[in-house]
């Protein structure tokens, strides 16, 4: 097997909370000869990994440096508060920021939410990771605000979560290194996440052909020929044949003679 016969691979980075399973499944169906390698990365490390060529594309959290990486936003996540199951806030479907004013709100070092001012009371020390913060919530030390996918990722039987409106939200995007044109395999994955069919043109619509002047004239002639007495060009009856008025065609096609005197 020569080097050109070896199928190229595609490396897809993804950050915690993002589940690429459905898109990976479609990839294997459409490109069975092109291996897809999943590369796990933290939200903070993923942009650098892409910029350095450690992956061909990645499912990352915005923002990213648009001078270095291209990005297509995919969806925005709901922000939730992770609380113990016996917390008083579990009685409501949603929790407002005002209701968290007296709570210790944990702020891990790997937090992915862009806070101007963190609600509630700060903890004595910031947990190193979201996983560490979850452990503290379970121990009754405080509460934690995270994107819903991270609450699901760190699910525990003794914890639950509730949506918190009017909070910063995390946006997930497909990103890859900036270039004049995305590589073919990146384009293939873009098509998959955007739901394009196998036979689509990768979003590059082909302009419909305009009829030429000759085709227009031909079509006009066809319409005129089928029009008959409906406004189309009339054809003269052949000589010697009866016209539709009952006279001879020949007498009607020439000049009329003077009327005979009585």
From TrEMBL:
GO molecular function term, any single one: DNA binding
Region (Disordered): 200-262
Keywords, comma-separated and alphabetical: DNA-binding, Transcription, Transcription regulation
Domain of life (superkingdom): Bacteria
Gene Ontology CC: protein-DNA complex
Keyword Repeat in record: no
Positions of the LysR substrate-binding domain: 22-195
Entry annotated with the keyword Zinc: no
Protein family according to the UniProt entry: Belongs to the LysR transcriptional regulatory family.
Name this protein carries in UniProt: LysR family transcriptional regulator
The organism's taxonomic lineage, starting at the top: Bacteria, Bacillati, Actinomycetota, Actinomycetes, Kitasatosporales
